[in-house]
């Protein structure tokens, strides 16, 4: 039996999460029969976790009070009673927010192949990249040569989505907060970047379209909602498609947030706005894995990431830094070497 530490939720947020919502607790971990113990190397922190801290979330099970938080993590098997998962195997699973995780074989989502960076399975080769691919390919039906707008393009999903669109020969405009992130996006191949903090997004998006020689948007991949979604609707062309992935501009709200004021344009222009939950599309995962593995190997897609904290005791602070926009690309917490 080994001592580990884990992060437990002890209160529900009212608006923006605060450090007093969680506590770090010591616990004993024993392997037992038909299980493995994994020393976690790194864990993902993601915006959706804020929603699961609330008891009102309806697209996933809320985190339980008094229980550890969960999320994707990669780690190394340090004890095993499962023949197919010997010690030393590196695996992906969803029992993050712990130093050590006891897993049944069916809780291991993937074994990390030799020579593969384990962090890639938290980013472009993991749920993050799969979300970007599903939204563009399966939901928006992206076609080569189209004009695409990615909101929160410097975030984990947005940065990969922009590169997937570029890989298909599209013209890509991304929104982000601040000039430093804008430079990162240009380095990833984005054709134009708008800073949503610098002025009205509607005007900035109009200027970006003119700069790339396009009259309208064909596809929007929206992670933000609010003003940015409204601006996208304004500049969509006829029969445009909007994949609704997130709405981070509303996550801190304590009362209902009004929707875009220009939905009448969606009727006039015959737009399609479709929300999606990536878990509904697991049957397409092998096709994504094959393509993303190839894109990463040949450099078509790179996997930007930011270490937002080091150590389980600082994990929630890292989560809050991610929510504050202090990271670019995939945000993760290092837990062990």
From TrEMBL:
Q: Which GO terms describe its molecular function?
A: oxidoreductase activity, acting on the CH-CH group of donors, NAD or NADP as acceptor
Query: May I ask which residue range the UniProt record assigns to the signal sequence?
Result: none
Keyword Oxidoreductase carried by entry: yes
Q: Where is the Enoyl reductase (ER) domain?
A: 15-333
Asked if the Swiss-Prot or TrEMBL record annotates the protein with the keyword Oxidoreductase, the reply is yes
Kindly state which keywords UniProt assigns to this record, in alphabetical order: Oxidoreductase
Q: In its UniProt entry, what is this protein called?
A: NADP-dependent oxidoreductase
User: What organism does this protein naturally occur in?
Assistant: Nocardioides zeae
What taxonomic lineage is listed for the species of origin? Bacteria, Bacillati, Actinomycetota, Actinomycetes, Propionibacteriales
């Amino acid at each position: 039996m080994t001592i580990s530490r884990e992060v437990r939720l002890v209160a529900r947020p009212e608006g923006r999460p605060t450090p007093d919502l969680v506590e770090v607790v010591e616990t004993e971990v024993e392997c037992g029969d038909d299980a493995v113990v994994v020393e976690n190397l790194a864990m993902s922190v993601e915006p959706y976790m804020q929603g699961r801290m609330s008891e009102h979330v309806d697209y996933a099970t809320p985190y339980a009070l008094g229980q550890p938080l969960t999320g994707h993590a990669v780690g190394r098997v340090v004890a095993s009673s499962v023949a197919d998962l010997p010690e030393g195997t590196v695996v992906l699973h969803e029992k993050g927010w712990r130093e050590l995780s006891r897993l049944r074989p069916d809780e291991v989502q993937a074994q990390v192949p030799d020579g593969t960076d384990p962090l890639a399975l938290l980013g472009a080769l993991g749920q993050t990249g799969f979300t970007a691919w599903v939204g563009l390919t399966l939901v928006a039906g992206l076609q080569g040569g189209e004009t695409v707008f990615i909101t929160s393009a410097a975030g984990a999903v947005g940065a990969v989505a922009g590169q997937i669109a570029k890989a298909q020969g599209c013209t890509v405009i991304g929104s982000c907060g601040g000039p430093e992130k804008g430079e990162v996006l240009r380095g990833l191949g984005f054709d134009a970047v708008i800073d949503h903090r610098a002025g009205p997004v509607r005007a900035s998006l109009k200027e970006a379209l003119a700069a790339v020689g396009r009259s309208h948007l064909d596809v929007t991949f929206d992670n933000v909602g609010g003003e940015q979604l409204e601006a996208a609707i304004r500049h969509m062309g006829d029969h445009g498609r909007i994949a609704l992935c997130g709405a981070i501009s509303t996550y801190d709200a304590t009362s209902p947030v009004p929707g875009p004021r220009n939905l009448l344009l969606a009727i006039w222009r015959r737009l399609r706005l479709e929300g999606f939950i990536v878990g509904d599309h697991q049957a397409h995962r092998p096709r994504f894995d094959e393509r993303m593995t190839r894109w990463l190997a040949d450099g078509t897609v790179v996997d930007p990431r930011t270490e937002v904290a080091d150590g389980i005791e600082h994990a929630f602070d890292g989560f809050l830094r991610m929510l504050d926009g202090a990271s670019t690309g995939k945000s993760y917490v290092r837990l062990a070497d």
